[in-house]
Amino acid sequence: MKNLIVVVSLFLSVAAYSQTKEATEIDNTIYASVDKMAEFPGGIGAFRNEFAKNVSTKKIKQKGVFRTEVTFVVEKDGTISEVKAVGQNADFNQAALAAMKKITTKWTPGKKDDVPVRYRFRFPAALNVD
Question: Which of 1, 70, 112, 117 could disulfide-link to 123, CB 3.0 to 4.6 Å?
């Protein structure tokens, strides 16, 4: 009888631990599709204005129209991370990264099933240097 009680107690404690572990796991998945997209205060227009205000053309040596795609992760707390810029002009890519670092305003995070999640945001940018 004592062995049965010990075995049942052991089984229940393992089951309780497993449930606790599952309930506290953190979802660090970066989503490209969510129920509600991440949003900059004032909308995408306000974000574009902030980005444009922060882009410096001083180090861009060539003239022409340059394009880059800035991608970043809007974290669950509204901060941004993992910022990258991919385009044909390395100087413009660097200027775009520097502009993003200057933007400290927090976003409203994306949501999936009404829960804040990490969301990958893609932002195409173009610059005309005369």
Answer: 70
Is the CB of residue 104 less than 8 Å from the CB of residue 51?
A: no
H helix or E strand, kind and range, residue 57: none
Closest by CA to 29, choosing from 86, 73, 79, 83, is: 73
Percent residues over pLDDT 70 in the chain: 81
Q: Where are the alpha helices (DSSP H) in the chain?
A: 2-24, 44-54, 90-102
Token readout for 49 is 């204005």
The whole-number pLDDT of residue 61 equals 84
Both tokens of 106, joined, read: 């927090």
Q: How confident is the model at residue 7 (pLDDT cuts 50, 70, 90)?
A: very low
Element (H, E) at 1: none
Task: Give Cβ neighbours of residue 72 (< 8 Å, ≥ 6 apart).
Answer: 80, 81, 82, 83, 84, 100, 120, 121, 123
Residue 25 clears pLDDT 70, i.e. is over it: no
Q: At a CB cut-off of 8 Å and minimum separation 6, what does 51 contact?
A: 70, 96, 99, 100, 103, 123, 125
**Token pair belonging to 63:** 């003239």
